[in-house]
Design brief:
globular; alpha+beta; 7 helices; 180 residues; 5 strands; Beta Polymerase, domain 2; 5-stranded mixed sheet
Length: 180
């Protein structure tokens, strides 16, 4: 752990845990989307529940991912200020290496509870997230393979969130190639 990480909050460095599917996850997503809509008046309100918690019967990290397509990040400071009142923390953009995205983490009891990803609407990233979620919903065998991979990677990268995410990338890329 470097000196920068020593001052990070507990939720920023928690270990990766994969849990069996929980039927509460879609309900939590709906509640979180309602909360986001009340915290700030977004121009676009087409929120999407993405990620593994959006796929029935898929094991996942118990963190709800919500995505919203946006035109720009001009109001990000006002959005961040509004979101703070419900424990949504803006991840500094320089930590994510994704100029096309801003991510908030909702913290509950010192743990990651949800992510809110604002993604620029001219990026293929939005389509990729939705396509992969929908593919997993439609293909049980692929979803089972993905669950097994995630469980293995969670052991290998228990304390390395970026390594875990990077290690899944090839699986996702290969699965999506079959759609084109």
């Amino acid at each position: 752990m470097n000196s920068k990480q020593e001052i990070w909050p507990e939720w920023a460095t928690e270990e990766i845990v994969i849990e069996e599917y929980n039927t509460v996850w879609p309900l939590l997503a709906a509640i979180l989307i309602r909360e986001l809509k009340t915290l700030y008046k977004f121009d676009n309100e087409s929120f999407e529940h993405i990620g593994s918690t959006a796929v029935p019967n898929l094991a996942a990290k118990p963190v709800i991912d919500i995505m919203l397509e946006v035109d720009n990040f001009d109001d990000i400071d006002a959005i961040a200020l509004a979101m703070e009142q419900e424990n949504w923390n803006l991840i500094p953009p320089d930590l994510t290496d994704k100029a096309y995205q801003r991510t908030f983490v909702k913290v509950v009891k010192e743990k990651r509870f949800a992510h809110f990803h604002m993604i620029l609407n001219h990026e293929d990233e939005v389509k990729r997230h939705i396509a992969f979620r929908d593919l997993l919903r439609q293909n049980e065998s692929l979803a089972n393979d993905y669950a097994q991979l995630k469980k293995e990677l969670a052991q290998t990268f228990k304390n390395d969130r970026e390594g875990y995410t990077d290690a899944r990338a090839e699986f996702i890329k290969t699965a999506l190639k079959g759609l084109h």
